[in-house]
Prior knowledge:
The chain is an alpha+beta fold. It has helices at 2-19, 29-45, 55-58, 64-77, and strands spanning 96-98, 102-104, 107-115, 121-131, 134-141. The longest helix is centred in the N-terminal third of the chain and has 18 residues, at 2-19.
Amino acid sequence: MKRSLLIALLSLILVASISKQPVLAAANPDDVVRQFYSWYVGRLAKDDFNPLKNRAVALKYLTPQFLRRVPGLIKKTDADPLICAQDFDPTWTRNLKVDAPAINATVATTNVDLVGEHEMQVKLKVTLKKTAAGWRIDNVDCGY
Length: 144
């Protein structure tokens, strides 16, 4: 009886610990982009105006090289290079449109539309690289 109770208790603990594991990285480039912008704009909406300071999370979505280039891009453009704007619309998380990516071996590109409720719309061209860790954003082109 005690053994059955112990096994049941250990099984519950195992199930609880498995359910708390982090979500695995997205396998597809468009999923990476969708997850990144949901997280990034979601953080901006919570008055976290520097979400990339959380390097561990940022590196789940961005290449280390791109993450290192971001501060210089901010100074050069006087805007956020990930959303190509100085301001943002919190409704972008609900109105995010990501086109099917064009994949060429280890590089993928996709067009992204951040559509806001207050006529604030931004179009981006996002380039991703396939790394050992999976697809990661390596560039955002604001000129699309």
